[in-house]
Design goal:
Distance between the termini: 77 Å
Keywords: Oxidoreductase
Helix content: 40-55%
Order of helices and strands: EEHHHHHHHHHHHHH
Family: Belongs to the peroxidase family.
CATH topology of one domain: Peroxidase, domain 1
Strand content: under 5%
GO biological process, one term: hydrogen peroxide catabolic process
Oligomer: single chain
Structural class: mainly alpha
Pfam families: peroxidase
Number of strands: 2
CATH architecture of one domain: Orthogonal Bundle
Number of helices: 13
CATH class of one domain: Mainly Alpha
Protein name: Thylakoid lumenal 29 kDa protein, chloroplastic
Strand order of the largest sheet: 1-2
Length: about 350
Amino acid sequence: MGGVSFLSTVPSFTNINNRQHLTLSSSHRSVLIRCCKIDPQVSENTLSFHRRDVLKLAGTALGMELTGNGFINHVGDAKAADLNQRRQRSEFQSKIKLSLSKAVKAKPELVPSLLTLALNDAMTYDKATKSGGANGSIRFSSEISRAENAGLSDGLALIEEAKKEIDSFSKGGPISYADLIQLAGQSAVKATFLASAIRKCGGNEEKGNLLYTAYGSSGQWALFDRQFGRSDATEADPEGRIPLWGKATVQEMKDKFIAIGLGPRQLAVMSAFLGPDQAATEELLASDPQVAPWVQKYQRSRETVSQTDYEVDLITALTKLSGLGQQINYEAYTYPVERINLSKLKL
């Protein structure tokens, strides 16, 4: 079966009625405001009190009460803290991606290893026991040395080197292996998308970058990027949860994907994660009537300029996979902001 291989490019007041009373109460006091019907024959200029004045007074009273109780100050502090945390995480993640991008660019031959490393680390998830998943357990020697992880040691070595660099500039503690392995998988995917764009531009890197910027699906990574704050496992995950992708039958692969909540569609779109020879994997997958239509769909998509169907579905599948077994800590990698002591400033 023909087709372009993914890896081939890499070696919201109610109305106030007449004579109603509006009472604002608090633990300290209550304020009674009488709202009377306005005589339409009375000139507006002669009125000393309008409904809008009532609303202003009500708002003022409420505002004074909230301020007196310190509520507004607390809300303001909370919002400021949340914004600071978001900014810190975003900046840190950007630096991580830059480091990984450079590392992958320097060793493009490790892209298949990084893809399978991200897959196998997450694929240990077991729905029945809610154990395993994208927890970085594959870093343990007893797990990386298993048969299903053969050939992934060099990819893990790249992760280890990148971690040293990233930890050296982190202000919010060391990066977890769980996060780093999945982010490395993302970087490998992006590198391959970019390489495909360059290939379509006859090898012109500048034009390829412009093509990928114009037609790529970078905006689809938002949910993946939000899943940042995975926790590391403290021991290797149990054996027997990952198939030997190079020897597994299509049915065995389908069964594994179904067991973690995915299916034939995701199996087809993630064919590049199942070993270094994507073309051979796709040929095998195309022999199954449930998987074949998806294999063909993604092969056709890869031949287009935008690759939209393929890119969007791959990013969606990887996003779901990379969150398996994890409760994301959205405060991870944040740190206290040093406050300025105004009393010590010389004016």
